[in-house]
Please model this.
Amino acid sequence: MSRFFLNLLIAMRSLENFRIRTILASLGVFLGTLSLIVVSGVTDSLTEKTENETRKLGDRLLIVKSGVVVSHGPRTRLMSDANTLTVDDARAIGDQILGVEAVSPSGSKVFPVRYQGNVLPATLVVGVTTNFPRVREFRPMQGAFWGEREERDLARVVVLGSKIAWKLFGNEDPVGRYVMVWRIPMQVVGVMEEKGADVSGADQDSQVFVPLSTFLHRIANRDYVDSIFVKIDEESRMMGARRGIVDILRLLHRISPGEKDDFTVIDIRDVSALKTQAMRMIGTLGTVSSIISFSIGGIGILSIMILIVNERRMEIGLRRAVGGRKRDIVFQFLTESSLISVAGGTAGMLAGMALNLVIFRVADLPVSSSGIGHLSAFAASVLIGILSGIYPARRATAIEPIEVLRS
Model:
């Protein structure tokens, strides 16, 4: 044990004598570890955020959109519009498609919403059915949602998103008060729970919800809907239900074979998959940059260790002459190269963790710590140190004591 500590002390003193070279040699390992920690942490955080956004939109959910919708990464964009999606389509889907647990048609349009002197000029007013909270897993935190009676009677009631309620009423209780939706006075019966933006990027807290019948006949004055939310009872039935929805809507809309659909069926898992694929690509690029940085760091450590061996020929020869063993020499130089690498790796790990915290706060991402990323970074720094020290250690053991003494 005393021999171990003696070799360790010699290694530390040697690195201190070559302080500038040591710092420069560890820089590549520092950058490699830094990039690996940052990429793994941010990737895990984005994955967690995607899962949270998917849960916000609803579980086992298919969305039928009117018109042609194309997905680009995490967002969807309407490419062509159509007015052919109806409440009857939603009813047919619920009655004829196997595995459908619930169906909720929805229409939306931007209108001004006002309470006394507070005016929100461009608020998304969404008409939904009574089972909307169940389908979307999005429920009131104050008051209650309306029932079948209000839906049937075209009641003038509204449930506010949490941000809308705050902007209009502040700390006041809005339940029971009246707001103007466009030119129609409507009674507030509830305030929705905070939900945030969903995976499509829509802020669900900045919307107001009214009965679909009220929206269609009193507010928007139309007979078509924009979307139909379809909740499936089992994950295994999602694909079959999607094909069934396409078939029945093509039949109801009288779309001939070869003609394009005037609707789009979106599986929310597809949007999440696109986002996950993009994150994997980012992770791959980050890993490649880490490997390059580690390689440069290894070359730097190898170079400085060869210089150290050449400048310490006298010390090595004298140690061998007075009985120093080859394995002690090997251990010493492997220890020195490992210390350089681990020091750079530790500094890179700490810097990466600090940078991740900054990124999480600035980008509003969930805090995530990748244990695999930290373990990989530490293992890589140790491995680079050992590999970089093998050749210099062999050169050191090849030095003959008699030649050193002669010189």
Remarks:
- The chain is about 55% helix and 20% strand.
- The chain has a mean pLDDT of 83.
- The radius of gyration is 33 Å.
- The longest strand covers residues 100-115.
